[in-house]
Write a structure and sequence with these properties.
globular; mainly alpha; 80% helix
């Protein structure tokens, strides 16, 4: 019962943070678009948000291993509240350079907060999840899937709050709500959650097992393959097809919600299609080599003159399912390959690679789209996902969960 209670508390804190994270992204985009900033300037506002995640995951994992996951979870919530309050003080009368510098600094805080909170929540699951059957896989899938769905909800929340309270009012409302979440977590979570019993040296930050190194590298290329066409290429391409700004934003929000719901249900999906084999390195390689079917199919459809809108809808539906399965198996394996003593360090290192993939994909998305259009983004995505699949081939079998019927029944 204590495990379930701790899981509920960690998940609730992560949910509260995630909604504000998605809402903040939408608030910044809409507010600065309204002020007349061009797309390149708006993209630069998020540069530090992504870049600081790389460093945060490594040193955040080290701090968590020495002080406990609870400390970094609280730190992430506090920094997000500070970032929201900082942005609420922004004055539209400031010069453009000062405004952009100020927002980029606030976004750096938000990026640090995001990765501290995510690393803490994922690490906590390893500690509090029961060991029996497929519980760890299911708990990770539920946490990660619900987070992605709620990030999409956050897009809607950001737009609604901006309309109702204005930019500063919306930010302060979110800061207040997150402060309540923080106080509830402080009053409820056990103090030594995720703390290593042995003193962790700084050298351990980059001293990983071959399995964790290979899985982290595969994660980097996997997420770069997604963002190379999803971040810039897809929204701009939809705009070129005649979609309005609000239609594009609403569609992306709904897709993120749908993707999150699929990810939360991955254990049941795998059971339903008869994949009862172990969820291990071999399974990840299998699903990684299935994923290239999506960009390849979309390239072929566009090449043969199929309707672009129909091609995108079909491709995105396929991608949501296959990428959700890949991501869920990835998120489980990083916990399966580590132990409670080093979980925060290993998860931090792994999500450093994740952040690096997002940053690489974001940069490539703008460059490739400008040089080769949307089909070019799909070709690069295909190449990146094949690299991720090839890296997955070397992962070990075993040390993973069985998806037998009785495991699914007893771990709910």
């Amino acid at each position: 019962m204590n495990s379930i209670r701790s899981y509920a508390l960690v998940t609730a804190a992560y949910w509260g943070f995630t909604i504000t994270d998605g809402a903040l992204r939408m608030l910044v985009v809409l507010h600065f678009y309204k002020l007349g900033y061009d797309s390149v300037s708006i993209a630069f506002l998020f540069l530090f948000y992504e870049a600081f995640g790389i460093v945060t995951n490594v040193f955040g994992g080290w701090i968590a291993s020495r002080s406990g996951v609870k400390v970094t979870l609280y730190g992430g919530l506090v920094l997000q509240i500070a970032a929201l309050c900082m942005l609420a003080l922004l004055d539209p009368r400031w010069p453009v350079f000062l405004s952009m510098s100020y927002v980029m600094a606030a976004q750096a805080l938000a990026g640090i907060a995001k990765d501290l909170t995510k690393m803490s929540a994922k690490s906590a699951i390893k500690v509090i999840a029961p060991d029996a059957g497929g519980a760890l896989f299911q708990w990770v899938a539920r946490l990660t899937g619900s987070k992605n769905a709620l990030k999409g909800v956050g897009f809607f929340v950001g737009g609604a709050l901006l309309t109702a309270f204005g930019f500063a009012g919306a930010l302060l409302a979110m800061a207040g709500a997150l402060a309540v979440v923080l106080l509830a977590a402080v009053a409820s979570l056990p103090g030594d959650l995720g703390r290593s019993k042995k003193k962790t040296k700084v050298a351990a930050l980059f001293s990983k097992s071959p399995s964790i190194n290979r899985l982290s590298a595969a994660r980097l290329f996997l997420f770069a393959a997604r963002d190379v066409w999803f971040v810039v290429g897809l929204p701009v391409f939809l705009s070129q097809l005649g979609w309005t700004f609000h239609e594009v934003g609403a569609f992306l929000a709904l897709w993120v919600i749908g993707y999150g719901l699929i990810q939360a249900g991955v254990p049941e999906i795998l059971h339903a299609i008869g994949r009862r084999d172990s969820i291990d390195g071999t399974a990840l390689a299998h699903w990684a080599f299935v994923l290239p079917v999506v960009p390849l199919s979309m390239i072929g459809a566009l090449q043969f003159g199929l309707d672009p809108g129909f091609t995108l809808m079909g491709g995105l539906a396929m991608f949501a399912v296959l990428f959700a399965i890949n991501s869920a198996v990835h998120s489980y394996l990083i916990l399966a390959y580590t132990d409670e003593e080093s979980v925060a360090l290993d998860v931090g290192f792994y999500y450093m690679a994740n952040a690096g993939g997002r940053l690489l994909g974001t940069l490539l998305s703008g460059i490739v789209f400008q040089l080769a259009g949307f089909p070019g983004c799909l070709w690069i995505s295909l190449a990146l996902v094949l690299v991720a699949a090839a890296l997955s081939l070397g992962l070990p079998r075993g040390r993973a969960v069985s998806l037998a019927t009785e495991d699914l029944a007893t771990s709910d």
